[in-house]
């Protein structure tokens, strides 16, 4: 597995993963185009054949904060350390920029992701009621200092 910069040509395969994992709450192509146009730090995980396994993004406002925008791993590639590698790469970028705190939102019913984030010292700091639409699922806001 190799991490590379997310480019515009990755958007179509990312949308396939989005639809599978997030259904009606998936991001649109326009949302990803906007993230790239705004210069946010996005990465893809590729297998040895160049097939997309996962992706992740980080919006930064140095030196104060960064937000993990998304981390997703193709269903058939989960539980192999790809999400962990993507998260570590995002946190390394935040550290490189001297970011003081990194935040993220995660569905309150996504215990595996919350557990992963907790192993990297993310702590719950709030709830966004009805954040995920159209399911009206709450988001747990988690923060890592330093």
Structure in words:
This protein is of the alpha+beta class and 146 residues long. It contains 4 helices and 7 strands, in the order E-H-H-E-E-E-H-E-H-E-E. It has one domain: Aminopeptidase, CATH 3.40.630.30. Helices cover 31% and strands 38% of the residues. A 7-stranded mixed sheet has the order 1-2-3-4-5-7-6, with helices on both faces. The model has no long low-confidence stretch (mean pLDDT 95).
Task: Please tally the helical runs, counting DSSP H or I stretches of 4 or more residues.
Answer: 4
CATH C-level name: Alpha Beta
CATH architecture identity: 3-Layer(aba) Sandwich
Share in β-strands: 35-45%
Trace the largest sheet across and list its strands: 1-2-3-4-5-7-6
Oligomeric state of the chains present here: single chain
Order of helices and strands: EHHEEEHEHEE
The CATH superfamily label reads Gcn5-related N-acetyltransferase (GNAT)
Task: Write the SSE topology.
Blueprint: E1 2-5, H1 11-22, H2 29-37, E2 41-46, E3 52-61, E4 65-73, H3 82-96, E5 101-107, H4 111-119, E6 123-132, E7 137-145
What is the structure about, briefly put?
The chain has 146 residues and is an alpha+beta fold.
Keywords:
seven-stranded mixed sheet, alpha+beta, Bact_Acetyltransf, 146 residues, cytoplasm, 38% strand, Aminopeptidase, 4 helices
